[in-house]
Amino acid sequence: MSDTITKVSIIISKGSLEGIYPGLIMANGARAEGIEANLFFTFFGLDAINAKRLGHIKVAAVGNPGMHMASLIGVLPGMSAIATRMMEKKMEAFDIPDIPEFMEMIADTGCGMFACKASVDLFGFTKEDFIPQVQEIITVGEFYAKAAGGEIIFT
């Protein structure tokens, strides 16, 4: 058995900035290392590929243990927007692309992008609701078939 990872399939289930970026960064890193990568967007992670929502992803200020003190005041109006802007400025300083640019960049490397059929049906979406980089709407079984022989990462 080889210790080399040759394929990863990453599940993105959260629709917040801190829920989406880890999967994008991992997929981008995999592709940069020549590792086959697939992204599977499910439940609120569909916001990452929803053409209308993609440009409006925010930091979750309430209930986010990583926000520490800000989580206590996160219920105040505007806190999510403030936290989001602060995070965006930090990412800009490190030259991390915004989500729409990152999605396009990753897709251009050959990363597969798939929407979860059960979640798509649950929320009443169609393929037309998603960005063009989404290749297919697939079932969980089809996702497992694509992930076969590789590692599955749940972010």
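Second entry:
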Amino acid sequence: MDSHPAQGQASSRFKRTRADHRDETAEDYVEAVAELAEQEGEARVRDLATLMGVSHVTVSRIVARLCDLGLMTTEPRRPIFLTDKGTAMAEASRQRHIVVVDFLKSLGVHEDTANLDAEGIEHHVSAETLEAMRQFLAKS
């Protein structure tokens, strides 16, 4: 099978998208744990289930996977805590969200829409594009 450059580019693009989707769940959950801890003083499975709109079982499975990845720690019927690695991920994700929201608002997008759209964009934007957004915002 002859490999064409366009096929290689498409393959790389799809691989990146799959990796972004995998990381998106982790980022959403560490952000949610950080938000709950900040607002409520702690994060628990039931709180995450409510916030994320999923079942207790779904949250428990995802939290277990994120504990295995070293992003958070917990024990049965106990609060969930972010590790240093999880805290760094949550902060990086929060900063990307802020940049994307501010960029969209600078284009005239309503704040509510910008926040909704940023939830998807923030997980898929490249470092290069994010830096271009930052530079654009710094000039305006």
